């Protein structure tokens, strides 16, 4: 295996381990793509599911007029120059009085670039729970909820988040994942796009005509984040994409910087996808679909250990989920 192949497979290992890579080039983008600006062209929401030893959930009582005295998980919009984790910890502190640290990202929800919500499973590390005497514009108070006592909720959408947190505590179904602090100007997907042959061979798609690497596709604000990867497949396999099944498997990790407002407000989702031939097969069924752009090529994974790792992730579904709420 040559030095270039070793570097490429090293990149794949990093992505599988939840690490990040710098975003220097795009392989697919809408006609007009500009850096996103927090609170102007993109909205990030952070939310925390915190569960104590009694399986009670930390809740806060809303002070906003439109949902006054209703209860919700600690959540809110990120502010400029914050990391995603810093935003979550600040919201928990402001709304509940408690300090916390993240255990893992639990899931990501998105509606195009209108908003992206990062939901964490977290644990308390200090502070004291907010009482009614400490009510302010952030919240009226906080309390632990046993999930059985009647509690007027602001919205029932948090019930599935709480269930996901309880399920993960009982039996984690993907490795712990936290955002990597690495700047990115756009909301984009880095694709670990795979094709598995029937004989055990495995290929990954590479972009970059001069220096091959995992391809990156910028997201379109009018569509779900997952659409970026599907658009790239259409662009590099235009004649055959209708005869292919392209399946987003989930997120291996994500990266965000945010220290320089307006220049590094983006998020790169490192996503695992698979492509398969549909139909009855034929002589080409054991080979990856043909590419029609010189900017892309298929790389056959030579390392048996890496090949097995990718196949295991494809088979187990043990990835951080993204729920698109795009209508």
Which oligomerization state do the chains in this entry correspond to?
A: single chain
Radius of gyration: 21 Å
* Low-pLDDT residue spans: none
Fraction of residues in helix: 10-25%
Structural class: alpha/beta
Q: How do the SSEs run, as a string of H and E? A: HEEEEHEEEHEEEEHEEEHE
Question: Whole-Å distance between the termini?
Answer: 46 Å
Count of DSSP-assigned helices: 5
Q: Average the pLDDT over all residues and give the rounded result.
A: 91
Largest sheet: 7 strands, mixed
Walk me through this protein's architecture.
The chain is an alpha/beta fold and 327 residues long. Helices cover 19% and strands 31% of the residues. The chain has helices at residues 3-16, 84-96, 158-170, 227-236, 304-316, and strands spanning 44-50, 57-61, 71-72, 75-77, 98-111, 115-127, 141-145, 180-181, 188-196, 202-207, 216-218, 244-256, 267-277, 296-300, 322-324. Strands 8, 9, 10, 11, 12, 13 and 14 form a 7-stranded mixed β-sheet that branches. The protein has a 5-stranded mixed β-sheet with strand order 4-1-6-5-15, sandwiched between helices. It is elongated and about 70 Å long. The termini are far apart. The mean pLDDT is 91.
Describe the secondary-structure layout:
Blueprint: H1 3-16, E1 44-50, E2 57-61, E3 71-72, E4 75-77, H2 84-96, E5 98-111, E6 115-127, E7 141-145, H3 158-170, E8 180-181, E9 188-196, E10 202-207, E11 216-218, H4 227-236, E12 244-256, E13 267-277, E14 296-300, H5 304-316, E15 322-324
Parallel strand pairs: 1-6, 5-15, 8-12, 9-13
Antiparallel strand pairs: 1-4, 2-3, 2-7, 5-6, 9-10, 9-11, 10-14, 12-13
């Amino acid at each position: 295996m040559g030095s270039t192949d070793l570097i490429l497979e090293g990149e794949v290992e990093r992505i599988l381990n939840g690490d990040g890579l710098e975003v220097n080039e795009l392989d697919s983008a809408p006609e007009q793509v500009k850096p996103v600006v927090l609170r102007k062209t993109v909205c990030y929401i952070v939310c925390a599911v915190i569960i104590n030893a009694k399986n009670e959930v930390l809740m806060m009582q809303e002070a906003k007029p439109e949902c006054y005295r209703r209860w919700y998980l600690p959540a809110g919009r990120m502010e400029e120059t914050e990391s995603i984790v810093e935003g979550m910890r600040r919201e928990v502190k402001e709304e509940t009085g408690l300090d916390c640290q993240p255990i893992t990202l639990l899931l990501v929800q998105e509606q195009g670039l209108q908003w992206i919500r990062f939901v964490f499973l977290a644990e308390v590390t200090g502070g004291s729970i907010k009482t009614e005497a400490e009510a302010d514009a952030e919240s009226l108070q906080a309390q632990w909820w046993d999930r059985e006592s009647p509690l007027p909720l602001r919205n029932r959408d948090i019930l599935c988040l709480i269930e996901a947190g309880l399920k993960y505590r009982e039996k984690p179904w993907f490795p712990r994942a936290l955002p990597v602090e690495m700047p990115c100007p756009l909301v984009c997907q880095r694709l670990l796009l795979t094709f598995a042959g029937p004989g055990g061979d495995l290929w990954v798609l590479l972009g970059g005509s001069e220096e091959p690497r995992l391809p990156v596709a910028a997201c379109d604000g009018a569509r779900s984040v997952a659409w970026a990867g599907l658009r790239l497949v259409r662009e590099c396999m235009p004649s055959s994409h209708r005869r292919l099944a392209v399946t987003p498997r989930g997120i291996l990790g994500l990266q965000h910087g945010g220290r320089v407002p307006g220049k590094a407000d983006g998020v790169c989702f490192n996503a695992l996808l698979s492509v398969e031939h549909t139909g009855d097969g034929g002589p080409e069924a054991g080979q990856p679909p043909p590419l029609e752009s010189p900017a892309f090529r298929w790389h056959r994974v030579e390392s048996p250990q890496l090949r097995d790792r990718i196949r295991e992730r494809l088979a187990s579904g043990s990835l951080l989920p993204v729920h698109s709420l795009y209508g």
